[in-house]
Amino acid sequence: MALKARRYLGPGAWSAFAALLFLLPNLGGPAFYESFLYLIFSWVALATSWSLLSGYAGYFSLGHAAFFGAGVYTTATLTTKFDVPFLWTVPIAALVAALLATAVGAVVFRLRSLRGELFALLTLAVTFILATIILNTGIDGGGGVFLSGVALPALAPTASGTIYRLGLGLAVLAVALSYVVRHSRFGMGLFAIHDDEDVAEVKGVPTFRYKLMALALSAAIAGAAGGVQAIYVGYVTVGETFAINVPLYVILMSVLGGARHWFGPAVGATLITVALFAFTSGGEALLGRAIVALALIVVVLLLPDGIVPTLLRLADRWRSPERRRPAAELPPTAVAGEPPHCAAAEKGPAILVCDDVRKSFGGIQALRGVTLSVHKGEILGLVGPNGSGKTTFINMISGHFSIDRGSIALGSDPIAGLPAHRIACLGIARTYQIPRPFNHLSVLDNVALAASFGTLLSGRSAILDEAWHWLEFTGLARHAFDLPSKLNLHERKFLELARALAARPQLLLLDEILSGLNPAEVENAITLIRAIRDRGASIIFIEHLMRAVVELSDRVAVLNEGAVIAIGTPREVMQNPEVVSVYLGKAYAS
Amino acid sequence: MPSLTLLAQSLIAGLMIGGLYGLLALGLSLSWGLLRLVNLAHFALAFLGAYLTYQLGTVLHIPPLAALLVIVPGFFVFGVALHWLFMRFQVTELASLLVTFGITVIIESMIQYFWTADFRRYDSGYGNASFHVGPLFVPTLELGACLTAAALAFATWSWLRWTYVGKALRASAEDPGMAAAFGIDHRRLSFLLSGMCAAYAGIAGTFIALISTLAPAEIWSWIGVIFAVVIIGRLGNPVGALIAGLAIGASESLTMAVVAPAWAPVVSFSVLIALLLWQPRWL
Amino acid sequence: MLLEADRLHIAYGDAPAIWDVSLQVDDGEIVAVIGPNGAGKTTLINAIAGILRIARGELRLAGANLAHLPSHLFCARGIALVPEGRRLFVRMSVEENLEIGCYPSAARKLRDHTLAHVYTLFPVLREKRNQPAGALSGGQQQMVAIGRALMACPKLLLLDEPSLGLAPSIVSQMFDIIREIHASGVAILLVEQNVVQAMDVATRAYVLEQGRIVAAGLPSVLLGETRIREAYLGV
Predict the structure, then answer these.
(1) Residue pairs spanning A and B at CB distance below 8 A
(2) pLDDT for the residue C235
(3) Do C72 and B184 touch (CB under 8 A)?
(4) Residue among C46, C103, C160 with most chain B CBs within 10 A, to mutate
(5) Contacts across the B-C interface (CB distance below 8 Å)
(6) Is the pLDDT score of A584 beyond 80?
(7) C-alpha span between A578 and A586 (Å, rounded)
(8) What pLDDT sits at residue A342?
(9) What's the pLDDT tens digit per position in B194-225?
């Protein structure tokens, strides 16, 4: 779904390249080249598969060796103990690794607090445990497993040629898969998870499922690579298979080449395998390793994106930017040509009903029984002093927090307790007080993602059209290909708005969207919010800027200490003595 | 079921190695807990210290304690330099893992270059000295490591607990902005802590040289266990690291005696996984 | 003049939060800055405390310009902050929190004396001195935060919304304590949402709305105007 701005090599060139590589064994060169290239292919497959989860979604795994090793020993066991033909064991190895990954992921990904470095260490732990189990049971038993007697199918003139072609197949599969994922909705979801998992969930991305899928795919390829490697080395031991080499080189290769690019790990794998090979003997091997390590340090510090993305960025600067869809430079207020739908006076039935909603954190009661409803087509202002529970309430409606008691229903569907991504699909969208865009996705992709996951729209062009529409509506069309970091605060707030609108919500939750804006920007925003309402959305609008609340809201609800103390038209409510005393003290109220 | 004597002996052996675990875990726990940086190079540094002790001892006949006089200040400076690198490039927690991995490989290569991959054993003359407690024997060197670990752990804990600098460090780790509002210079403190952690690695290395056989590849075999010890003992808690080390060492040893030696490596990780799944707020 | 802020511009991230704000605090005064939520009160006071950078303008304490000083040097000049939401070091004990307050060397020499004073002011803290700060109630935590700032022996005490999240009975207690502290010779700059209490205790006040000072003067005069009401209630 990501708009690939430019292609340097078309599919024809890639196919020709692959075909050339395939035909190499027929040229009859020395077996050494086939073996060396096989090694490169094997690392390409391993590094690319690692980056599916760790590069795209950002969950750094140190346990790739576990899946690789599972594959190695599946093939080793099946071929030597059960006489299964070698070629069959490769997909079985992939399956075993994928099952292992699913089991690990099902447990580990459920824990919300397990992010970052802890996940990395847990995956390392899994590797150690698996290695120990294999070592101590009949699978290996300590003596290693000899595969030299296993028959190899003749896929090429020589044995090394066969292994070469198997390796090539794996590498092509891995890279192709990486490409497909990268340009799919799934890949976009993974990228969003990488940038801000909570927001991704709220925008409709099924984060748990996607992480599990990425881990399983990643493991499957590693497992298959392990199966082929078993035949290549001919004698496998636990020590060699589960050594710290595999996970660390894989990370190095991906990070060097660019973990977020589908071809990055392949480039990194090639460079490093060649570099390591170039220093073969004695002291030089050490020097080689040290230089490779130094390269990693330099890359992490200076080129955090990796080689491929950096090169692409430099190349981009030489070319002109791709033709953009001609965006009429509409100021945000120009929703010209769109007659307002329901007039402000006509309010429909209640679309959101909250009944006695309660929530405490630890011992503190944040919400003490909030009862209110929002009618179709109305703007409900939600105000109250600091700490009164406004943001908590919004967080509960959007699914960030679970409810202790009470109910929240959208139309006739109860939504309290549903996962956030389901609530997003049911038609509730929100903005964040401090904008939280997906920083590595372009402005267009940010909005397209919300459209893709928050609505039932499918098909790339439909979703892009939708995204462009909302970018024009909020005046951000000229920034479509920029990264969010290039926008100022006003524009980022509008990006939040565009993202929320792209999900075509029935109910829009705005959290202090006016804070930090200068008076002119505030006017702009107010006009836009009215336009949104006029198109049929209902809005809950948290704000401190009282003048704006009074001007914009159809009704106002005042929260104090977790409960609603007044609800009605703005003038009524803000002159209610209890409300006045909450804000200004009893003396004022009289 | 092995005899009581065997179990007791295993327990002692376990506690002894556990002390070394605690010693090695100390520096890592402090830098991860108080500086929010994962320093994988801690292990390579420890081994560098071990090899230096070996070299000074075997070639120049400098006793280990004297070797410490060189190692401790030298490593302190290295720690400060490393931290300067992190600050200069505003390295994140995850990036620090990668950078220190690179440094580990570089140090390992250096070690292998100078001392080759062959196993080296430091013949310190203390050798296999041990003393007897009833039917059990307690190896002296290991006991020394254990006692040093305990002394350092408690000294560090007291320093963090009772001194102004220690309190400033703890406050700064919790809320650096607020700490600065009361005059605490986070930068200077972090350099101090970084140097200390590197020095601790050096001290651990000296004992590693005295107790184990050295080989460059051995660096990697400690990583898993020590990370488990650090997490179980809670980040930034010196005494916690010590107790976790002792506990893991003892569990491993008893597992070896009761079940089978080969299952020992699983122990620390199983405990870690169980703990994290049951009490995810442990960190 | 103890504190002079001259045409301050402060940005929060890249969002301009404070525009062209000038204010003064003299020895012996309690100056209040009131205004609705989102007006920028916390941004203003954090900048005066040195936690936020000042983009433009001057900040002088006893004549010396502080605008470009690194954060950790503000305290030694005589400014102490009681931040919004208390921001205690929750894993450290009450007494340790107080001790952090006298980290600067000048204050450290007077530790025992100041600590005794703080315990006299807040007897309940003496009882709970060894408990982790996170275990105390809201009101007690506010006392620790105030005590911590007092330990720095400041010339100017900055209070950011001291009544936030406190029960009404405790709020009046808090303001009595503020009067006591003022009586002991410390100048106070107080930022508050709670208009009545703030105006009751202040000698002078400013009204901040959307990052700008919209009114200034004696509390009694300001209370009579409609500006405050409009700012807070929009009507």
Answers:
(1) 103
(2) 66
(3) yes
(4) C103
(5) 63
(6) no
(7) 8
(8) 34
(9) 999 999 999 999 999 988 889 888 887 788 78
Last residue of a domain, one of A198, A217, A251: A251
What's residue A208's pLDDT? 92
**Tokens read off for C131:** 């408990």
A138-147, A350-359, B135-144, range with the lowest pLDDT: A138-147
Please judge whether A489 and C233 are an interchain contact, meaning their C-beta atoms are less than 8 angstroms apart: no
Contact A516 C195 (CB under 8 A): no
ipTM score assigned to the predicted complex: 0.88
Looking at A231, A251, A271, the residue that finishes a domain is: A251
Task: Please tell me whether residue A509 adopts helix, strand or coil conformation.
Answer: strand
Percentage of chain A surpassing pLDDT 90? 36
Position A538 pLDDT exceeds 50: yes
- Token digits of residue A419: 């996962």
Pair of tokens at residue C202:
């202040």
Structural domains counted in chain A: 2
The sheet carrying C187-192 orders its strands as: C79-82, C156-160, C187-192, C30-34, C204-209, C212-217
A4-13 as b/e: b if 16+ CB within 10 A: eeeeeeeeee
Which of these ranges, B90-99, B112-121, B226-235, C143-152, has the smallest mean pLDDT? B90-99
Q: By CA distance, what is B97's nearest residue in A?
A: A117
Shortest alpha-carbon distance between residue A321 and chain B (Å): 31
| C89–B185 CB contact, under 8 Å | no
The torsion region of residue A170 among left (phi > 0), alpha (psi -120 to 50) and beta comes to alpha
pLDDT range class, residue B78, cuts 50, 70, 90: very high
Reading the block at residue C51, the tokens are: 């936690």
Q: Check residue A5 and give its pLDDT.
A: 44
Residue C64 has pLDDT above 50, yes or no: yes
Q: Could you tell me which CATH class the domain B4-115+132-282 is placed in?
A: mainly alpha
How long a stretch of residues is chain A?
Answer: 590
Same domain, A470 and A577: yes
| Residues A341/A359, Cβ–Cβ less than 8 Å | no
At B86, which amino acid appears? F
All residues at 6 or more sequence positions from A117 whose CB lies less than 8 Å from its CB, including other chains: A60, B38, B93, B94, B97
pLDDT 10s digits, A461-505? 899 999 999 999 998 999 998 899 888 888 899 999 999 999 989
Which member of C81, C90, C108 has the closest CB to residue B181?
C81
Q: How far is CA B109 from CA A84, A261, A474, in A?
A: 42, 30, 57
Domain segments of chain C as ranges = 1-78+156-164+187-235
- Subunit partners of chain C (3 or more CB pairs within 8 A): A, B
- Cα–Cα distance, A305 to A259 (Å, whole number): 7
C-alpha A569/C-alpha A555 separation (Å) is: 4
Instruction: Return the residue of A nearest to C161 by Cα.
Output: A386
Q: Tell how far CA A584 is from the center of its chain.
A: 46
Q: What is the mean pLDDT of chain A?
A: 84
pLDDT bin (cut points 50, 70, 90) of residue B109 is: confident
In tens, the pLDDT along C140-154 reads 899 999 999 999 999
* C55 alpha-carbon distance from chain centroid: 21
Q: What is the mean pLDDT of chain C?
A: 88
* Contact criterion met (CB < 8 Å) for A300 and B98: yes
Per CATH, the number for C1-78+156-164+187-235 is: 3.40.50.300
Per the domain annotation, does A413 fall within a domain? yes
Please state whether B260 falls in left (phi above 0), alpha (psi between -120 and 50) or beta.
beta
Could you tell me the maximum CA-CA distance found in chain B, to the nearest angstrom?
61
Mean pLDDT within A207-221: 95
- What's the CATH code of the domain at A363? 3.40.50.300
Q: How many CB atoms lie within 10 A of CB B128?
A: 8
Structural domain for A378, as ranges: 350-589
Q: Does B168 touch chain C (CB under 8 A)?
A: yes
